[in-house]
Amino acid sequence: MKVLKFGGTSVGKPERMQSVSQLITADNDQKIVVLSALSGTTNSLVEISQSLSEGKKEQAKQQIDKLESHYRTFCEELVKQEAGRAKAKAIVDEHFEFLNIILKISFNEALNKDILAQGELLSTRLFCVYLEEAGIPAVLLPALDFMSIDEYEEPEIPKIKIKLANLISQHKGQHVFITQGYICRNARGEVDNLKRGGSDYSASLIGAAIQAAEVQIWTDIDGMHNNDPRVVDKTFPIEQLSFDEAAELAYFGAKILHPASIWPAQHFNIPVKLLNTMQPEAKGTIITELPNGNGVKAIAAKDGIIAIKIKSSRMLLAYGFLRKIFEIFEKYRTPIDMITTSEVAVSVTIDNQQYLDQILKELQPFGTVELDYHQTIVSIVGNEVAATPSIITKLFDAIEEIPLRMISYGGSRHNISILINGQFKEKTLQVLNKGLFGL
């Protein structure tokens, strides 16, 4: 059995959704198809939720009406027969009736999660209506019936495995199963989600749960590129990556893949393919256990980084100092991306400022705390890059005119990361593309 995930742009237009139906019926293999919300829907739902949280109900109503109009037009183009259109209309009626009802309800975080779930629920139900009209047998497996996270927001793979197996066993002989990405239930049984980009994560978790032959991530680009094609003119898709290389790239900014989506596949050694819905014949990128040779594979950039420097000549060399610093970040569940130390200071970076005020307050007793906002981490990733002197020489020759804030080297043999002010991001990616790839 395979898992095929299609992102928002892959299902964002009626003709794209119709193309997806052709891709999932190209062979007779059993498969679970994971769909994101139609492109733009989640952003619209976030805006609706934001308006409601601020008490702007008239604005929220306008946003709901605009989104509803888009879906009604979408359905008119997606299905042509009267029976199919009636079913599609009923689905849209149901979901937008819910969105209109919440205008009369007090806003809270649980309601916010319900609002954000509507996109995936709509896309999968409408896709099933289209498949039925096209005469393609398929079964809808509601993600809320099997996908769950624990009290720490970690996926419960053993439970997912059992529930999913039970659901599939009820439909013997079926080859195509449709489900939602992104959404799940939390430890309280409420509707929740796997955060933005979570449909990739859903696909990888499902792949792990069913021990899939492979997980395919279908997007609008032909695989993982060696650099950011939105910033750099000359880029190319990478044919093969190891799980370690892909994980580094995803975590440090490669937008094609959700950072958390690698470890379930890696843990169960399930190949992941990154493919292009618009060019299904393209090779794309395959991610497997073993690397395909040494050298630089790709460059990724992660924006919105905050650098925190704690300077303390009195305490830095004291036993347990670093442990106490890290315990503060652990207390507020805030991951650290990079760390450097000197004789009198330690610098760390974070990408989540939700608890920044509390963290800074608890850091104050340890010394002087300085912040640098709007930083960018640029990572150079590839097998053994940190152990290859020629690569290190080319890297620092290329960025000789770029002011560096931090360097992370030696923590991984597959990654060298630098921290720069965000204003130098584009120039840095361009000079590295030339210096490391000759492009």
Order of helical and strand elements: EHEHHHHEHEEEHEEHHEEEHEEHEHEEH
Note the total helix count: 13
What is the rounded Rg?
23 Å
Instruction: Compute the average pLDDT.
Output: 93
Estimate percent helicity. Answer: 25-40%
Cα separation of the termini: 40 Å
Secondary-structure-based class equals alpha/beta
Kindly report the spatial arrangement of strands forming the biggest sheet: 3-4-2-1-7-9-10-8
Low-confidence stretches: none
Number of strands: 16
Biggest beta sheet summary: 8 strands, mixed
Proportion of β residues?
15-25%
What is the overall shape?
A: globular
A few lines on this structure:
By secondary structure, the chain is an alpha/beta fold. The protein has 13 helices and 16 strands.
Index terms:
16 strands, ATP-binding, Asp/Glu/Uridylate_kinase, six-stranded antiparallel β-sheet, Aspartokinase, eight-stranded mixed β-sheet, alpha/beta, kinase, 439 residues, 13 helices
Q: Any overview of this molecule?
A:
- Residues 2-276 form the Aspartate/glutamate/uridylate kinase domain.
- This is Aspartokinase.
- It comes from Chitinophaga hostae.
- This protein is α/β, with parallel strands linked by helices and 439 residues long.
- 40% of the residues lie in helices and 21% in strands.
- It is built from 13 helices and 16 strands.
- It has helices spanning 14-24, 41-53, 57-78, 82-101, 109-133, 157-169, 198-210, 243-251, 262-267, 321-331, 356-363, 389-398, 425-437; strands at 2-6, 31-35, 139-140, 176-180, 183-185, 191-193, 214-219, 240-242, 272-276, 285-288, 298-311, 339-341, 345-350, 368-381, 406-412, 415-421.
- An eight-stranded mixed β-sheet has the order 3-4-2-1-7-9-10-8, sandwiched between helices. Strands 12-13-11-14-16-15 form a six-stranded antiparallel β-sheet. The protein has a two-stranded antiparallel ribbon with strand order 5-6.
- Helix 6 crosses helix 7 (198-210).
- The longest helix has 25 residues, at 109-133.
- It is globular, with a radius of gyration of 23 Å.
- It starts with a strand and ends with a helix.
- The relative contact order is 0.10.
